[in-house]
Write a structure and sequence with these properties.
about 5% strand; globular; binds flavin-adenine dinucleotide; about 475 residues; mainly alpha; single chain
């Protein structure tokens, strides 16, 4: 469609959908016929992000701006209350139409509802679309019309659905008659809180739409054939790594889904590709839950857990945060997160189990720390993952099933290469990623690579026993 430069522009309000391809929002905005002004607003919801996701958001915004400039456009950046900013930009540009992609956490839903109502009152045309999910939460219903609380039937309900092929990116983007003033991204200082960790994590982050697409291609070409068998081995590098891209919308789930479907049908990797599709649907399930039960972010999802004697934040939890529990597999996971901004799913489960069970500390303490440190932080998956592991969540691992970090190490890190990578920080065989942990860690922690490795914060048998006793007392 050619652009009518005399038609009023459309504002495309971008949030966690920072890409151009397979983006129904772009498609809708371009259909308006006039120029499109893409705008990102650093409002209180984004401003409250943890240190690592906030830094990573800045990287994503910079990548998108570069992509837009290559097409003759640019990203308009503004800071403040989203409603007030949109009002101002509409006034400045003469735009009469706003398009955005829907979000599903309660804070965003509440904000968006209010904004939609007030824009409509002003006579502005507002359209919201789905650019972030395969199956929007209200489109998957049980036989009785309710929502799913268990993953397997959710998967069965969606597995056979036909999904639209990804939409191509818009071509050259005609600019508006004049660009409204934009904030300078650097002035937002999105990396201030992650501080010296930024330089370390940046070595591992894979930022932007093109890099995300390449990452998917490499995964499908080189690794999907061993995904099912090796995805639980942290050192195997058998997973896609796409979570940091999906979370900012640098790639669409549809793009990943269709690549998986092609691998399943055309490349003879049926079981492996099916497993990948199932994992993508775990993300969908998390959004299904956060939409239908928004309290999953802040409250025990399952009844009866409020009385559980979890500890509030405590010194043992501080050792957990610092990767200093003296339990190797736990510390390796916690340090991996600090150095790379992500943690392997196996060690996410294990570190979360250790905190909530061996250390009897509330899942909210761990959820908050992951929210601070993960560059793939996702409000739905993080909340679900924590409550699942703690036992208080939907379809949860039963509380009495307690991961033993040593057994897990024997099983999933038998050659110790994962622990070597993140724990062996000094001496002739030191690994650079293990050493980097000490460069990334805040100076106030006062730790150095040459320091002794700590004694275990708790005996594994003792921790397990205490946790089980508390669980039995609760169930009695
Ligand atoms: P792959 O194995 O390649 O899977 C492909 C995609 O499927 C992932 O990118 C992700 O989008 C989705 N996926 C896979 N496993 C899960 C899962 N268990 N739950 C939801 N989606 C899944 N994931 C996040 O994206 N953000 C989080 O903040 C987050 N916090 C978690 C906290 C805990 C305590 C736990 C146990 C899990 C958490 N997860 C989170 C889920 C999972 O650990 C990551 O999605 C996964 O490790 C990402 O690696 P990958 O992209 O290589 O995944």
């Amino acid at each position: 469609m050619s652009t009518n430069c005399t038609a009023p522009p459309t504002l495309l309000w971008l949030r966690r959908d920072l890409r151009l391809s397979d983006h129904p929002g772009w498609q809708k905005a371009v259909e308006g016929g006039g120029p499109v002004i893409p705008v990102f607003i650093l409002d209180p919801i984004f401003d409250a992000y943890g240190a690592a996701p906030k830094w990573r958001l800045g990287e994503s915004l910079a990548a998108l701006d570069a992509d837009l400039r290559a097409r003759g456009s640019r990203l308009l950046l503004r800071r403040g209350d989203a409603a007030a900013v949109l009002d101002a930009v509409l006034d400045e540009t003469g735009a009469r139409r706003v398009v955005w992609s829907r979000l599903y956490d309660s804070a965003s839903i509440e904000r968006d509802r209010k904004i939609k109502a007030s824009l409509k009152e002003r006579g502005i045309d507002v359209e919201s679309v789905n650019s972030s999910l395969l199956f929007e939460p209200w489109t998957v219903e049980t036989n009785t019309g309710g929502f799913y609380k268990v993953y397997s039937p959710f998967w069965r309900a969606v597995a056979q659905r036909d999904l639209a092929e990804p939409i191509v990116a818009p071509g050259d983007l005609a600019p508006p008659a004049s660009w409204p003033a934009s904030d300078d991204l650097a002035s937002w200082r999105l990396g201030a809180a992650i501080n010296r960790g930024a330089e370390i994590v940046a070595r591992h982050a894979v930022v932007g739409e093109t890099a995300a697409r390449d990452r998917l291609d490499v995964f499908i070409d080189d690794r999907i054939d061993r995904y099912k068998s090796e995805r639980n081995v942290p050192s195997a590098h058998a997973c896609s790594g796409l979570s940091e891209n999906l979370t900012y919308g640098e790639i669409s789930p549809h793009t990943a889904w269709h690549a998986g479907v092609r691998a399943r049908t055309e490349r003879g990797h049926a079981a492996e590709a099916e497993h990948f599709l199932k994992e993508l649907v775990w993300r969908e399930f998390a959004y299904h839950l956060i939409y239908h039960t928004p309290q999953i972010e802040t409250e025990n999802w399952r009844e009866g857990w409020d009385a559980f004697p979890w500890r509030d934040d405590n010194e043992d939890a501080e050792r957990w945060r610092r990767g200093m529990t003296g339990v190797e597999m736990v510390d390796a996971g916690m340090r991996e997160m600090y150095v790379t901004g992500v943690m392997h799913n196996r060690t996410r489960m294990l570190t979360a189990s250790f905190l909530t069970k061996h250390l009897m500390t509330h899942w909210k303490v761990g959820e908050a720390w992951f929210r601070e440190c993960l560059i793939d932080w996702d409000p739905a998956s993080n909340a679900m993952g924590w409550q699942w592991t703690a036992g208080s969540g939907p379809d949860a691992a039963p509380y009495f099933r307690i991961f033993n970090p040593d057994t897990q190490a024997d099983k999933f890190d038998s050659d110790r290469s994962y622990r070597h990578r993140f724990l062996d920080a000094s001496g002739p065989g030191a690994h650079p990623d293990a050493t980097a942990f000490f460069d990334a860690a805040p100076r106030s922690w006062d730790i150095c690579p040459q320091g002794p490795y700590p004694e275990p914060v708790i005996g594994l048998a003792e921790g397990r026993h205490k946790a089980l006793k508390a669980y039995e007392a609760r169930s009695a």
